[in-house]
Specification:
Layout: E1 9-14, H1 18-33, E2 53-60, H2 70-73, E3 95-97, H3 106-109, H4 127-136, E4 141-144, H5 151-164, E5 167-170, H6 180-189, E6 192-194, H7 204-217, E7 221-231, H8 234-238, H9 246-257, E8 269-276, E9 283-293, E10 299-309, H10 310-330, E11 335-336, H11 338-344, H12 354-365
Parallel strand pairs: 1-2, 1-4, 2-3, 4-5, 5-6, 6-11, 7-8
Antiparallel strand pairs: 7-9, 9-10
Helix pairs in contact: 1-10, 4-5, 7-9, 11-12
Bound molecules: nicotinamide-adenine-dinucleotide.
Length: 368
């Protein structure tokens, strides 16, 4: 696809779960509310607004979502995120049946359907058919919102995006933008990639990074820290399978380590999803603790509890990253977009302090 110059940002979504629900709702909400929309990180970025995004295709495997318009699919079980905007009749893009690959684990297949993924009986699209769908929909960006641990599925959709001429926004902790081999493929194809793993708008990662950085600024020696996260959505259920967690833990831990002047020994830092509490649904609770020493070795510690609706917190970054993909395409940029990724993702190609990353994002968008 040639570089777009204007018009709606035609966007496809792989994984029509809770984050996709918040993303689709956010677009319709911003269309309706315009400048009165609440909680939008960058109401205008490089001249683009969230309502400039148009969802043109979805891919999922769940029988309650496949073959439905995306505005209906995002409200179907097992999605459980808060519905902050239910006027979704403008969201008519079809949800296509993608291949399961490693998206649905054996562990998830054994859970009750209302809290898990239920693969559809419809035949799955092949690689060539997914590419055709993306091309026919004239998608310019593909957003990846698949379950944690689905490395094969992520690589499948990244490969389809390359073949279809789509930029990629990778919201999950399977490393693409921060993996030199994938970075090269996008460079060679002349396509931008932003990632990896959304750093939520006001999530545990950015708050934890800020506390750790504050301690450094004030000369406090941080000795140890943890960040324990619990939630009750399918993301948390899926992450009960410890075998799928390695890159999630790496992404979250590295995001905090990189905000500190001195790295902590592995035994002194523990960060990750910690339990599944069904009744929390899409609410996530994070418990953060830092222990350290002040002048003369005097002890200090801080405990923080953060509660958020999990999926709108990620969608806020998605509506920014999609606009950055358009900006990058318009400028003919290819490969990892470092100046935008550091602010938006936990595991970018290069970690940068959040205030500087914010300035770089604005400069990239031409808004500095
Ligand atoms: N919520 C946040 O703040 C946040 C932040 C960073 C990253 N993330 C990540 O974003 C991802 C999506 O999160 P979510 O809460 O929407 O998860 P979710 O479990 O609600 O949605 C995942 C969706 O993927 C579908 N799926 C499974 N296998 C598939 C396949 N092979 N092809 C297409 N679709 C498939 C499922 O049916 C489901 O609809 C997760 O990896 C999560 O860790 C979330």
């Amino acid at each position: 696809m040639s570089a777009p110059t204007g018009g709606p940002i035609r966007t496809a979504i792989a994984g029509v779960g809770n984050c996709a629900s918040s993303l689709v709702q956010a677009i319709s909400y911003c269309r309706a509310k315009g400048p009165d929309a609440v909680g939008v990180s960058f109401p205008v970025l490089g001249g683009l607004r969230p309502e400039d995004i148009e969802v043109v295709a979805g891919f999922d495997v769940d029988r309650r979502k496949v073959a439905r318009p995306i505005g209906e699919a995002v409200l179907a079980e097992p999605n459980c995120t808060e519905v902050f905007w239910d006027l979704l009749s403008d969201q008519t893009a079809p949800v296509h049946r993608g291949p399961d690959l490693d998206g649905v684990s054996a562990f998830m297949r054994n859970q009750p359907p209302e809290v898990s993924f239920v693969p559809s009986d419809a035949p799955a699209l092949s690689r060539d058919q997914v590419v055709e769908v993306l091309q026919a929909a004239e998608a310019e960006v593909l957003v990846i919102l698949l379950p944690v641990g689905s490395a094969e599925a992520v690589e499948f959709y990244a490969d389809c995006a390359l073949a279809a001429g789509c930029a990629v926004v990778n919201g999950i902790p399977v490393f693409l933008a921060s993996n030199p081999a994938w970075a090269k493929k996008f460079e060679a194809a002349g396509l931008p990639i932003l990632g990896d793993d959304f750093k939520a708008q006001f999530g545990a990662t950015v708050v934890h990074r800020t506390l750790a950085h504050l301690a450094d600024l004030r000369g406090v020696k941080v000795d140890r820290t943890y960040q324990l996260n619990v939630g009750g959505n399918t993301d948390f259920m899926n992450m009960m399978d410890m075998d799928r967690l390695a890159t999630k833990r790496e992404s979250k831990t590295e995001a905090v380590q990189s905000a500190m002047d001195a790295r902590l020994a592995d035994g002194n830092i523990r960060i990750g999803p910690s339990d599944y509490v069904p009744w929390l649904q899409d609410r996530k609770v994070a418990y953060v603790r830092l222990e350290g020493r002040l002048l003369g070795g005097a002890r200090t510690s801080v405990e923080m509890r953060l509660e958020v609706e999990d999926s709108p917190n990620a969608a806020a970054m998605a509506i920014t990253a999609i606009r950055c993909a358009r900006i990058a395409r318009t400028r003919g940029l290819a490969g990892p977009i470092q100046d935008a990724s550091a602010f938006l993702f936990k595991h970018p190609p290069v970690q940068i302090d959040d205030p500087e990353a914010y300035d770089r994002l604005l400069a990239f968008a031409g808004d500095a």
